[in-house]
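R.M. (postdoc): so does anyone remember the format we settled on? I'll just put the structure tokens first.
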């Protein structure tokens, strides 16, 4: 049962994460480097073409004012290249930077396979869509670690996945690992692998609070 699994600490609900970017002109070099370092070097990486929507839901404690309300985010993703795949509902907690010597960002992460009517279900709950985009890219695996190179596209006025416009001239690169709570030693494993990708890409802990201060 889920309760027993949580008590036994066997559910991978913590994501260890480093992020960076590489410009389009250098993406092929990084792609080849990852292909050599990661598993299944002969067959190459998996590809993906996904549509992701981000929903927010306001939550407040009894007696709280509107200013005290906090929102949490839910992400819905579907595979455009494999419409037969289940949709994915993901909850991501607030990123924790920890101490300076903590190698990675740490955040809660729960993934659930679901049906296409999840969007209607979230709307009925009072969730509001904040933004949406399309991702195309490559997925590499190294043991339990996952590396993605994602090109992010803005959807056109028609809100159709077919009318796409690149948001930047670079790829988002993410190195992550899902593990049960308390397995902080895996963060060092991620850091060691990230060092092998320098100087092609610098994967770092991103402080989202600093990014918000610039918006």
């Amino acid at each position: 049962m889920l309760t027993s699994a949580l008590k036994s600490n066997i559910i991978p609900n913590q994501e260890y994460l480093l992020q960076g970017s590489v410009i389009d002109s250098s993406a092929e070099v990084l792609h080849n480097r990852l292909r050599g370092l990661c598993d299944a070097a002969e067959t190459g990486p998996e590809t993906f073409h996904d549509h992701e929507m981000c929903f927010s839901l306001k939550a407040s404690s009894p007696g709280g004012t509107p200013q005290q309300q906090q929102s949490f985010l839910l992400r819905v993703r579907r595979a455009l290249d494999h419409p037969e795949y289940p949709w994915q509902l993901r909850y991501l907690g607030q990123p924790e930077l920890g101490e300076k010597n903590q190698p990675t960002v740490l955040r809660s992460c729960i993934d659930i396979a679901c049906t296409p009517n999840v969007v209607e279900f979230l709307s009925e709950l009072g969730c509001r869509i904040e933004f949406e985009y399309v991702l195309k890219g490559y997925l590499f695996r190294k043991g339990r670690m996952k590396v993605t190179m994602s090109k992010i596209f803005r959807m056109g006025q028609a809100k159709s996945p077919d009318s796409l416009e690149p948001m930047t001239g670079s790829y988002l690169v993410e190195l992550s690992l899902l593990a049960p709570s308390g397995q902080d030693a895996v963060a060092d494993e991620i850091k060691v692998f990230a060092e092998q990708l320098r100087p092609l890409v610098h994967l770092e802990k991103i402080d989202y609070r600093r990014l918000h201060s610039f918006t």
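R.M.: ...and that's the designed sequence above, right after the tokens. Also worth knowing: The chain is about 20% helix and 40% strand. The domain at 12-206 is CATH 2.40.320.10 (Hypothetical Protein Pfu-838710-001).
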